[in-house]
Design goal:
- By secondary structure, this protein is mostly helical.
- It has helices spanning 10-42, 45-81, 85-120, 125-140, 142-157, 162-185, 190-217, 230-262, 266-302, 307-340, 349-361, 365-380, 384-409, 411-434, 437-442.
- The protein is globular and about 65 Å long.
- Helix 3 runs parallel beside helix 8 (230-262) and helix 9 packs parallel to helix 11.
Length: 446
Amino acid sequence: MNKDLTVGDPGKVLWRFCLPLFGSIIFQQLYNIADSFVVGKFVGENALAAVGNSYEITLIFIAFAFGCNIGCSVIVSRLFGTREYGEMKTAVYTSLIATGVLCGVLMLSGICCCGSLLQMIHTPAEVLADSALYLDIYIWGLPFLFFYNVCTGIFSALGDSRTPFTFLAASSLANVGVDILFVRSFHMGVAGVAWATFLCQGVSCVLALLFVLRRLAAIRLEKRVSVFSWRLLGRIAVIAIPSILQQSFVSVGNIILQGIINGFGPGVMAGYSAAVKLNNLVITSLTTLGNGISNFTSQNIGAGKMERVRQGFKAGWKLVWLLCVPLVALYLAAGRYLVYLFMENITGEAIDTGVIFLRIVSPFYFLISIKLVADGILRGAGLMGRFMIATFTDLVLRVVLAFVLSASFGSTGIWCAWPVGWVLGTVLSVVFYRKGPWREKRQGVL
């Protein structure tokens, strides 16, 4: 069901729209968490380290998929808000075609370069083969990742956050069962969790794509619409390319960090792999809520309702903090037990590493959540330059500090770099938000 986000109480509208998005990302993260849980429990510490090591490279591909999602979603939201349904349909078709071409290029690049990337980040010999195997299978599933992300962006642009939630919930729960079947019953090891993700994401993608096409067909128009537009592709690219660059540089930064972490051995690698899954569950959830705020912002700007953008920021702030309170409390109080879930051996360096990471990073979720709300508004408004400045500043600072602090404080120094980068990035994002065009309206300029 399509929903107009430009009418009704902004707080209630945003909450109803974003809560299914939050549920969706919880189930999305189940894919990665299930992989780590199953290999950690039923294969061993080296297998867990291999999946975690590969995950940092998969984030590059996810960055491109995320950029396609945002670029399509923001433009389709804007056209939906202005009731330009013919243009909206063309934008959707254009996004799908461009995504298919980009995905093909990335698959070819991945097949050729992933082995070199694993060597570049100093992957230990004992986990290299499993890391490469996981990545090989993952790359063949990229079309499912890309098209599902674009479909999710389209649903969100139309104000529908429930349909993708339904698909993803069913797919993620199935993935857990198939993971266990392939690894424990068929003894497929790391390949088992990779193939399970491939199959379940494939089903989810096909269903989502069919429903998108059906939803578009239900919007009747007098004139036949074009299936591709270079002009609309340009508008989409203005949003998508900065988002891809931002996420790609974040992924490259994470790969650099992974290279530093790998220097401390499989124990620290496994502990980080477990803890970073828990961390990414929070960060990705907050980012997804920020994406929902982007759709809200874009629709309302398209309808000329700037006042609702400011109201959306306040409502978004309350929403993310409500999410942060129980998660921070859980990670601080029960972090050790959560890390245990990923490992068969409940003592040693890996456990201690995961616990220390969570205790250092999790209290700052309150801060980074504000940045992600402000970033969502900046993206929805098309202010990509400001958005990228805030993000790159955070990333560069984290990577540089990880090098510096790890030399003196070991792996603990790497984890301390996270909060410092988040502080500066949040300050910049909030400053840029406060200088947006919605502020001028309040002063009577618009």
